[in-house]
Design goal:
It contains four helices and seven strands; from the N terminus they run βααβββαβαββ. The termini are far apart. By secondary structure, it is α+β, with helices and mostly antiparallel strands. The longest helix has 15 residues. It has one domain: 3-Layer(aba) Sandwich (Aminopeptidase), CATH 3.40.630.30.
């Protein structure tokens, strides 16, 4: 996989299958969204769906929910395993925040598994703080606890 900076853009209908494949490659079966959940994310009226694309294709995806409330929620951010460590997640997160600020969101909240140290580090480096622990956030995993994190936009 090349190391070119990704282009961050809105999801288009033609991207759906590539994002499904990316999702399968990025997450263990126990925490991955199933097709029904992914379809809802793709179609929900207040979901911001972004992809990161390089010459190799789609290497990242992010989805956030934001309606009329000032709080938005990051649903997922994922990077293809072969593209990790190349700034894809950082670029997606920066663009999610920029677009949410333009939509008048003032807080971004997310949930991350307590054992996902790379993701926790990414979020903390970008100004997110742990608000609380949710002991049942990931019921399909042996260690089901997750952190709820937030950041002022």
């Amino acid at each position: 996989m090349s190391s070119a900076d990704p282009e961050i853009r809105s999801l288009t209908p033609g991207d759906r299958e590539a994002v499904r494949q990316l999702h399968e490659a990025s997450f263990a079966d126990e925490v991955a969204f199933d097709d029904i959940v992914l379809d809802r994310v793709f179609r929900h009226w207040n979901t911001l769906n972004l992809v990161a694309e390089t010459e190799d294709g789609i290497v990242g995806f992010a989805a956030a929910l934001h309606g009329s409330r000032p709080k938005a929620r990051l649903l997922t951010i994922q990077t293809h395993p072969e593209a990790r460590g190349r700034g894809v997640a950082s670029a997606l997160l920066a663009e999610v925040q920029r677009r949410l600020r333009a939509r008048k969101a003032d807080v971004l909240e997310l949930e991350v598994h307590v054992d996902n140290e790379p993701a926790i580090e990414l979020y903390e480096k970008r100004g997110f703080a742990i608000e609380r622990e949710d002991p049942a956030a990931y019921p399909s995993l042996d260690t089901s606890a997750g952190y709820v994190m937030h950041k002022q936009l």
